[in-house]
Structure formats: structure tokens, C-alpha cells
Amino acid sequence: MRRFACCRDEDGPVKPVIGVLCCNEIADRPIQAVATRFVEPLVRYAGATVLLVPAVADAMDTRALAGRLDGLLLTGSRSNVAGARYGKTDAADDALDLDRDTVALELAGRMIEAGRPVFGICRGLQELNVLFGGTLTETLEEGHHRWTDDETAYESLFDHVHDVALQSGGLLATATAQRSISVTSVHRQGIARLGAGLQVEAHAVSDGLVEAFSARPCGGDVLAVQWHPEWDVAASASSRAFFSLIGQSLGTYRDH
Question: Is 218 a known active-site residue?
């Protein structure tokens, strides 16, 4: 028979809880999915506990959930943000996840209004730009942006590297102590018009595309990058710096 040890104050501080948004995928049947590579750096470098958030609009009470999370990460995905969210007509071959759009925009909006930190990677950056009233484009320079189909080997998805210039005095430039870094990007959409109130943190060296932004509209940090810091985090100081910034933001919110 198991003996239970009741929790006591001396067990140590409780780690902040960050929600990580899933995607709708098909594996013989519909499932909720998120790559493990998004989860591990949040534990290792941000000192957080991860709670997976289903992208099922009808099953989500975003108001209740926003009141329980200390932060939120909108992950990358194989799907695009629907054009209807920013005044564009979708192409017939667009890969969409409409429930993901709904949950991401509603939950992120409630978290930001509550002064809780929200972060984005790849699709997450695009979602946050739309949430702030920005628009997206699919006309991207092939010199550094890359998208692959479902047949591409997983190991080669992120082997394309390009340079981004960091905004002087920005969060990323300060955290990395660098003026530019090399990153991996895999995406079909990018920022066309930057959302209101967002500050550019980085732009692509080759064509000037906005690659990262930040904001603090209601007291909590908003930080998003177009590239994939979770992919090479163990080998990249700048990637670890991104997740350390997440940990700092979560800690600042919990301290208040």
C-alpha cells in the first residue's frame, strides 16, 4: 500500500505554469499534438511547468484558463493562420486549423489583458501579429525562408539557416549581447503589416522581414520570434537566451 507524503511549505516554491498550445493533427483519427521540442526548453531553461492546451474551441473556457496560467506559449505549426482573421481570402491549398486560430487568439487576448506574459514561435508570432491588428503575407523571399511538405524528413526540416539583425536596445539584443544572430526558419506566412503597439526586435538581413517583436500593453511581456529557437537550443546561446527571457517574464509576473 502506498504511503502519501502531504505537501508542506518546506517542499520549495511552486514553479510557474505555462500553457503550450497544441494543434489539430490526424493520426488515423483526429488528435491534439505538440512537438516535444517545444516543451523541454521551457522546463530546462525557463524553469516552468508545462500544461498542454487543446486547440478545441468548443471545449475551451478561455476565461477560466487564462485565470489559472502564469504564461502562454503559442507554438509553431504546419498550418497557416486563416486569411479571414486579417482580411484576406485563403488559397484553395492553404493548410488551415480554424480551431487553433480561435483558441490562440481568444486565450492570448485574455492573457494579455490580464497582464500575463505571452510568447510566440513561428505561427505563434503570426497569430500575435494578427491579434494586434497586423496582417500576413505569403510572398516571401526564398533566399532565407523555407517551407517543406509532409514528405520532408524530420531531421532536415531545420537545416536552413539565415541571419537576422537584432534591434539595438531590444530584449533580444540585450539578452544575447549580439547585433545579429543566425537562425532557422520554416514557414509560409510572414508579417506584412506590423500590429499596433508592437516593437520590432529583429528583422531579416536579406529582405527586412520582421522576424521578432515585443510589447507590454497591460504589464505582462509579449515576445515572439519567427524562427525556431527550440530546435537547436542546446547548441545555441541565443536560443537559450530566448527561453531564459521567458523564465524571467514568468518570474516577474509571479513576484507581483
Answer: no
What confidence tens digit (pLDDT) does each residue in 211-244 have?
999 999 999 999 999 999 999 899 999 999 999 9
6 is catalytic: no
- Are residues 74 and 123 in contact, defined by beta-carbon separation less than 8 angstroms? yes
Q: In Å, how far are 36, 197, 223, 238 from 200, measured between CA atoms? A: 28, 10, 10, 17
Q: Please say whether the beta carbons of 191 and 164 come within 8 A.
A: no
pLDDT at 173: 98
Please give the residue range of the domain that contains residue 27.
15-255
Is 230 an annotated catalytic residue? yes
The enclosing domain of 180 has a CATH number of: 3.40.50.880
Residue of 122, 145, 187, 201 with catalytic role: 122
Q: Which three cell numbers stand for residue 125?
A: 508570432
pLDDT band of 194, cuts 50, 70, 90: very high
Write down the residue that cell numbers 483558441 correspond to: 103
